[in-house]
Amino acid sequence: MVHHASAGATMNDIAAAVGVSQATVSLVLNNRGGSRVAAATRERVLGAARELGYRPNAAAKTLRDGKAGLIGFVGDAVASSPFSGRIVEGAQARAWDDDMLLLTINTGGDRRLEDAAIESLLSHRVIGIVYAAMYHRVLRVPDALADIPSVVLNSEDAAGRAHAVIPDEFAGGAAATQELIDAGHERIAMINIAPLASGLPAAVARHRGYLSALEGSGLQAVPALHIEGDGNPDAGYRGALELMARKERPTAIFCANDRTAWGAYQALQEVGIRIPDDVSIVGFDNQETLAPFLRPGLTSLELPFAEMGRRAVELLLSGSNGESAAELVACPLVRRGSVSAPTEEAP
Predict the structure, then answer these.
(1) Could you check whether 67-167+305-329 and 169-303 share the same CATH topology?
(2) Residues whose CB is less than 8 angstroms from the CB of residue 74 and which lie 6 or more positions away in sequence, other chains included
(3) Is the whole model's pTM more than 0.85, yes or no?
(4) What is the DSSP string of 5-53?
(5) Do the strands 252-255 and 138-139 form a parallel or antiparallel pair, or are they unpaired?
(6) CATH for the stretch 169-303
(7) Do 290 and 258 touch, CB atoms closer than 8 A?
(8) What are 138-157's pLDDT values in tens digits?
(9) What number does CATH give the domain 11-56?
(10) Residue 280 φ/ψ region, left for φ over 0, alpha for ψ in the -120 to 50 degree band, beta for the rest
């Protein structure tokens, strides 16, 4: 028998089409029938639901269960960023694994819009809220999130109340430096993305990783080889020129983000220094619109955006987000052509 789809088909419509009770249809569609509903009957009910275009009543489900099958996601500029948007993709994919939807709101850093967005999500009875930032920093989490499961993503709660999921900046900085050490380099510089006095977690932790790798390999850290940039290409350009002007110039540079590395590439090319023949470079972020397209391709540590997004939703769904500890996610190394052994002629 062929059933014709109709707008707003109900469980009663399905029951009439199949010839069973509305209670049986409810058991099947809410996946609560177990062995009480024969397999053949279950298939008939599901088939009729598809043909009739049945859609669950979300409002009724919310009234029944107390919560909608929705997870809120509030970010400053995450959804509109060309690379950190993968955080949203990872979070959405994990929500979908449990047949849930992600309601995403991009606030642009506007506090009034953020407050209104959170209130709206709470009114929709979301299961929890992921509170995300475009870059890793310590921030103030809105008080409205105190009474609902929430996870801070790609940043840390200044009050230490909310669980956070962040990249392992320290291990990433150490891995970047170790890649250069393993290639045979001893004079390794670093162009950072912010002054250490700023307290920016990424700048501080990546620098600590740099120092740790040097110390672990018995190499002396030279303060003059640490340049405090601002994360932009111009700072990478100026920093690389400053390093190359040294009497004993470095044979390798760890650039604390890919935009800094881009500027360093331009400076080295301008003064006739070849990458990686004369100077090796490692970046950080593995920015997909940049790192693979430099010549040579930039070896870089990847920020695990998609994995962090998945993990944040995982914490909400598991109910283990009440702890205030930060969970670190590893930053994998992506090798390309910007690293080689130092040449004997290098000064």
Answers:
(1) yes
(2) 105, 107, 114, 117, 118, 121, 129, 130, 131, 132
(3) no
(4) P-TT--HHHHHHHHTS-HHHHHHHHTT--GGGS-HHHHHHHHHHHHHHT
(5) unpaired
(6) 3.40.50.2300
(7) yes
(8) 888 888 888 788 899 998 88
(9) 1.10.260
(10) beta
> Locate tokens 């881009």: which residue?
262
Q: Could you state, in order of their start, the residue ranges of all structural domains in the chain?
A: 11-56, 67-167+305-329, 169-303
Over residues 261-301, the pLDDT tens digits come to 999 999 999 999 999 999 999 999 999 999 999 999 999 99
Strand pairing report for 163-167 and 150-153: parallel
Token pair belonging to 244: 């190359």
Is 151:220 a contact under the CB 8 Å cutoff?
Answer: no
Homologous superfamily assigned to 67-167+305-329: Response regulator (3.40.50.2300)
pLDDT given at position 323: 53
Residue 23 sits at φ, ψ, to 5 deg, of -65, -40
Q: Are 157 and 324 in contact (CB under 8 A)?
A: yes
Which spans in 188-337 are helix H?
201-216, 233-244, 258-270, 305-318
